[in-house]
Amino acid sequence: MAAVARGELTTRDRLRRRMLSLRRLREQAIEGFIFLNALLGVAVLVGIMLLLLREGLPLFRDYSFIDFITGTHWYPVSEPPTFGMLPSFTATLWVTGGAIAIALPIGVLSAVFLSEVAPPWLRDVLKPLIELISGVPSIVIGFIGLLVLAPFIADALNLNTGLTGLTAAIMLAFMSLPLIISISDDALQAVPDEYREGAYALGATKWQTVWFVLIPAAFSGVTASVMLGIGRAVGETMTVLMVAGGALKIQHSIAEPMRPMTATIAAEINNAVQGGLQYRALFATGIVLFILTFIVNLIADIVLERQKRKFQR
Amino acid sequence: MTSNGEGQGLKLDITVAGEKMMQAREKDAALTQTATAHLRADRVNLYYGHFCALRDVSLEIPARSITALIGPSGCGKSSFLRLFNRMNDLIAGSRVEGRVLMDGVDIYSPDVDVVSLRRHVGMVFQKPNPFPMSTFDNVAFGPRRQGISKRSQLKDIVERSLREAALWDEVEDKLQEPGTALSGGQQQRLCIARVLAVQPQVILLDEPCSALDPIATLKIEDLMRELAAQYTILIVTHNMQQAARVSSQTAFMMADEERAGRIIEFGNTRELFTKPKDKRTEDYITGRFG
Amino acid sequence: MSTLAGSRREVFARRWIQIAGFSLAGLATAAVIAPVIWVVADIFVRGHSAITWDFLTQDPARQGKEGGIFPVIVGTFYLMIGTLIFAVPVGLQAAIYLSEYARPGRLLRLINLSIVNLAGVPSIVYGLFGLSLFVFTLNLKTSIMAASLTLACQALALIITSSREAMVAVPREWREGALALGASRWQTTRHVVLPRAMPGILTGIMLAIGRAAGETAPILAVGVAFQLGKLPNSPDDQFLALPYHLYAIAIQVPGMPESRMWATALVLLAVVLAFNLGGIILRIYYGRRRQS
Question: Which chains touch A (3 or more CB pairs under 8 A)?
Answer without folding.
Answer: B, C
